[in-house]
User: Fold this.
Amino acid sequence: MEERAWYSVQTYSGMENAVKRNIERRIESMGMQEYIFNVLVPEEVRLEKKKNGEMKQVVEKPFSGYVFVDMIVTDETWFMVRNTPMVTGFLGSSGGGAKPVPIPEEEMLPILKMCGALTEKPFECQVGDKVKIVNGPFSGQYGTIDNIDFEKKIVKVLVDFFGRPAPAELEFDEIKKEF
Assistant:
């Protein structure tokens, strides 16, 4: 069985929500809930100033013409999504029966966070905790938390640098607590 992953489906521009509804209806009617888990149309809400000075909310689709589908690709699911009305194909599928290429997790995470579809887990470290740095120039090194800024989501870690503790400012997701 194939792995579950996110895929980008190309649609007619402006028809993303209709495609989402169509795919969701087809999932129900064809009983594919075990293979297709989520259909997402990313949207950003921002405030815009009108001519009269009032503020109004504007909803923008940063990925116009695309719908993201969390699914396991089988012949049936691939055929069903590809043949949904207003779908032009999968991004990363070269045609001729080629299966689509999944979106890498590191590219999909910021999209999910932007949409609010992914909630961040609470930061569980405290000052004095030993941590391993998992990203950035100090990746693979260990250090001790010296300071935590919850607003900016930054932590100051003291890393052993040539026998002396050197401070490194890192984001929360760049460290992992060592037990």
The chain is about 20% helix and 35% strand. The radius of gyration is 22 Å.
